[in-house]
Amino acid sequence: MMLTMLCVDSDLQRLAQIKQDLLPLSATLQLVEATTLYEARQLIVQNSDTFALILCAQYLSDGDALSLFTHSQCQIIRKIVYAQDPSTQQLMNCINQGNIDYFFPLPYQKKSLTQLIETQMSNYRITHHQQKPLAEHAQSAPFNETRLLKPTGFQDRFLDYSLYSDTELSNLVIQSLYKILENNDEHNVRRRYHANHILTREGQKNRFLWFITKGEVLLKKRNAQGETQDITIMQAGSMVGGMSFLTEEVAFSTGIALVDTEVLKVDNAIFSQIMHSHSALLAPFTNLLLRNFNRRLQHSISTELALQDTLKSLDVAHQHLIESEKMAVLGQLVAGVAHELNNPVAAILRGSDTLISLITTLLGHDNKSEFSQLAQQTLQRGLTVTPISTSEARNRIKHLLPLVGDKNIAKKLVNMQLDKEDIPLQIGHDFSQTVTLLSQYHQAGTILRNSNVCATRIANLVKSLKHYAGQDSATFSATNIHEGLEETLVIFENKLKNYQVIKEYQQLPQIECHPIELEQVWTNIIANAIDATKGQGKLTISTVYLPYEHSPKVQVIIEDNGEGMTKNVLEKIFELNYTSKREGNFGLGIGLTICSQIIKRHAGSIEVESKINEFTRFIITLPVFNAYIENERSALISHQFD
Questions:
Q1: Cis peptide before 107 (omega within 30 of 0)
Q2: What is the mean pLDDT of residues 308-318?
Q3: Where residue 144 falls among pLDDT bands split at 50, 70, 90?
């Protein structure tokens, strides 16, 4: 079906551009042009039943679009106006009086103009489906051929309703039905209902198709428990009952008018009659129906996906709840263990402190010889820890060896920190025997220190357990990281006897931390390294100072030469309850999780690098000045003064 559009614009250049931009529509649209208001009126009078659309500039050389549309006597359905600087008041008058159907501002986009004209052509075809073909009118009222763009063909094409939104397409169908029923509504299709009127009933057969033209309709449905739930509210322009109307199945839901509502109520007979006599309505209605079904399907799929996501979330929440319950039970267990350990550990610590004091007193009583004084100093050195790198110890032994002539004696002197002192001989002993005797004093002090360290560690562990169970709070202090590492090595001294332990310490500042918590980290990582190397191998402990200007940090690197870890294990080792231990090495899967939490509480980071059958390396980075600790200190001081 060929349509004709009158283009009116006094700007000849713009008129030519519009004609050029609309060439893609020449198969279904022929253009007639006018450059003045007078010329346009003459064309309309001569061809009163011909034009389907008028595209007009708001301002013309001898008038405006409003004057053209107000005084025009033709039956023009689609009127479109454009302007560079439109008169808002004039446009409002045009729209309110129904004199124009669309307005667009200049400049325009070619694609937008083409789509707009196609839409208006579709609207015209639907609302004027009973008009005679344009060719018949053309015979009785020929155009001035000099002003006509020749069409390239006469085959019509299926209307492109994708240009319409859901609301626009629905309104198009509804307005078409209204126009059809305007002079003949013998079946009372147009209805008005008060609030709470029921349109459809769930589970009952529905024989009607309902188009809502005004008001709101609530859709309700029963759930599996028989309870009625609200589904959605259908607004004006919506269609109700489409699925059950076409399939003749029972209604899926109950539709209830929420307010005074106007509808078009169409049964099968009326619908068939309308479609038969107004075939042009079939295409937009079919498109609208398909859209409704598609929207329902999309909604169902979206709902299903949302339910699946909800189920997954519930599963995750359930797992978290289970883990929380496990941790709660573990907390109770920890509190009980801490209570049972506290008293005997306190007794060991008191005895250890007393023994150290007594030995010091006994050794110093009435003994003023140089050897006795040195022996007492050596014992005292055994009671303290002096971190020394493996490489430094080797260099000092190598330097001392030419002087003493025995590597074992040189090693003992370096270990006792006596390699730079003169050694007075004990009466009746040579140099080698004197060094061996001093080594025994040092060993006695070391044993006492180790006992004290282990007892202290147990006491600290009890404090940590009580802190974990929420019965106590960890204490903070400025700490030498090396001391904590050395004390941890003391605890594992027996298990490390078949290991090559390499210590590479840099000079480090003290850091603000909870030392007890950090010792838990060193203990856990070294214990894992021992398990991974199965009782023998190499353990390397390194420290590095990172003197960043605004945030200096220290690093502790603990590496073993064990079997390593796969990528899958590396991704999970910090997860709660995950353990890779086997073959008798019991693991709860909470150690590294707690380590990670401790490091995070210290505003630090913990990283793991590993290669199968080569190494596993833990890299712990900690700030020297800890804002988290500082906040704790401020809160504690504030609490003390409250």
A1: yes
A2: 81
A3: very low
Mapping DSSP to helix (H, G, I), strand (E, B) and coil, where does residue 599 land? helix
Residues with Cβ within 8 Å of 474's Cβ and at least 6 positions away in sequence, in order, are: 463, 464, 467, 514, 516, 517
- Type of residue at 215: G
Closest CA to 525 of 456, 591, 600: 591
Asked if 274 contacts 219 with a C-beta cutoff of 8 angstroms, the reply is no
Residue with tokens 């988290």: 628
Q: How far apart are CA 272 and CA 245, in angstroms?
A: 12
pTM over 0.70? The answer is no
**What is the residue-wise DSSP string for 529-575?**
HHHHHTT-EEEEEEEEEE--SSS-EEEEEEEE-SS---HHHHTTTTS
Both tokens assigned to 513: 């931390």
Burial class (CB in 10 A: 0-12, 13-18, 19+), 90: middle
Q: pLDDT (tens digit, 9 = 90+) per residue, 208-234? A: 888 888 899 999 988 878 888 888 888
- At what angle are helices 390-404 and 407-415 packed, to 10 degrees? 130
Angle, in degrees to the nearest 10, between helices 481-491 and 515-533: 50
Q: What does the DSSP 8-state code read for residue 83?
A: E
Other residues' Cβ atoms within 10 Å of the Cβ of residue 555: 19
Pairing of strands 29-34, 53-57: unpaired
pLDDT at residue 73 is higher than 70:
no
| pLDDT tens digits for range 232-276 | 888 887 888 877 777 777 888 899 999 999 998 888 788 777 777
* Percent of the chain whose pLDDT exceeds 70: 76
> Looking at residues 364-381, what average pLDDT do you find?
73
Q: Is 219 exposed, middle or buried (0-12, 13-18, 19+ CB in 10 A)?
A: buried
Neighbours of 228 (CB within 10 A): 12
Q: What is the mean pLDDT of residues 102-123?
A: 87
- For 100, 126, 383, 498, the CA distances from 175, given in Å and listed in that order, are 17, 10, 100, 93
79 and 56 Cβ atoms separated by less than 8 Å: yes
Backbone angles phi, psi at 251, to 5 degrees: -65, 140
